[in-house]
Structures are given as structure tokens and as C-alpha cells.
Amino acid sequence: MANKFETIEAANRTEFGKGSARRARVAGLVPAVVYGAALENNLHVTVDHRAFAGLVRRNGVNAVMELDIEGEKQLVMIKHIDQNVLTFNIDHLDLLAITRGEKVEVEVPVIIEGQPAPNTMVVQDADTILIEADALNIPEEITVSVEGLELGAQITAGDIKLADDQVLIDEADVLIVNIVLPAVEEAPAEDGEDEAEAPSEA
């Protein structure tokens, strides 16, 4: 992403516990904790659910934003989104306080493009890759080409070319892509075979 980020309003949270969190969610708010070396103490805040969900749609799950906490500004990035498995609503957020020029570790989605050699198929063994990047220049995704790769070809984390300001944190031998033979479905038994096994009538 570019060195531009959105501002989202937040309010200090003074009540804690499941009851207060539930009331906040009913009111359309998401409880969040802000932590990091840039802060003396963790911050407990709420943000508007709709505003935050829109920001994620526009900027991705590694979004950097400016929190406006009742007039106090703080740069943060998303570290974890706790999402309800039934409603898909956001229940809680972990936000990392950051400063300009700071390096952070982040998992970035790996996107496959291209087609391998004929009569082969792509198996993607890892959907993300862990890298270190400038907090204000985190890529939304990393694209890997499989164009023309032959049977048996593999792409590991160490094979992926990163930008000059990015460092691989995952082990270099982590398998990302494997080129294999397509799965072969077993043909159903022919009717004639079934009839041959059936006992003859007297």
C-alpha cells in the first residue's frame, strides 16, 4: 500500500468484561486494544463497526490507519481480527501502535497467476508468507507466477522475489507451490460387469 492511510475515530473504553463488550457490539461498536513499544500502556478503545469494516474492504487485513482517539492521533496497523464464525461480525480487534519508518512482521497473502504446463495442476501449500516490511508500505499481496512450470516444479518462500525494503521471515524452504499430476477419478463399474456377477434365473 502507498504511504497514505485513512483516519478512523475511536473512543476510550472505560468498562470491561463480556457484558460491556456485548453492549458495545449491540451499539454498532467494536472493542479494540492498542499495544506496542510506541505506547507506555495499552489503550482500550471502541471503533465504529461499519467504518472499520469499510476500511478493511478498501485496504485489506494488513491495513495501516490513523486512530483519532478523542482528539489524540495514533498510527496503528491491524494485527488480529476476531470475527464471529456465525454472523461474520467483528467481535474484537488487536491493533499495533507504530511509528513512521518502523519495520513490522506481517503475513501477506500469496496470489498465484499463470498456467503450468499442459496436463499438470497447481497445488498451493501456503496461502500467506511472513515478511518484515516498512509499516507504512506493506504490500496487499505478493504475486507468484506458475506460467509454463513443468511437472515436479516447486516454489518455496526463498524463491519469491521481494522488494528491496522487505525481508523474508519464514524459513526459505517453506513450500508455497507444487506442480503435480491432475487427480484421476475412478471410472464407475460398467453395467455389463454387474450383470455378469448376478445369478442366472432358473
Write a short abstract of this structure:
By secondary structure, the protein is mostly beta strands.
H/E element sequence: EHEEHEEEEEEEEEEH
Poorly predicted residue ranges: none
- Fraction of helical residues: 10-25%
Please give the largest β-sheet: 6 strands, mixed, barrel
Helix- and strand-based class? mainly beta
CATH topology of the largest domain: Ribosomal Protein L25, Chain P
- CATH H-level superfamily title of the largest domain: Ribosomal Protein L25, Chain P
> Tell me, what's the shape?
elongated
The end-to-end distance, rounded to whole angstroms, is 80 Å
Total helices: the number is 3
What is the averaged pLDDT score? 86
Question: What is the CATH architecture annotation of the largest domain?
Answer: Beta Barrel
Any idea how many domains?
2
How would you describe the overall organization of this protein?
- This protein has 202 residues and is mainly beta.
- The protein folds into 2 domains: 6-99, Ribosomal Protein L25, Chain P (Beta Barrel); 105-180, RNA Polymerase Alpha Subunit, Chain A, domain 2 (Beta Complex).
- Helices cover 13% and strands 41% of the residues.
- The chain contains 3 helices and 13 strands.
- It has helices at residues 18-26, 49-59, 191-197, and strands at residues 6-12, 29-35, 43-48, 64-69, 72-83, 90-97, 103-113, 121-124, 128-134, 142-145, 154-156, 167-168, 175-180.
- Strands 1-3-2-6-5-4 form a 6-stranded mixed barrel.
- The longest helix has 11 residues, at 49-59.
- It is elongated and about 60 Å long.
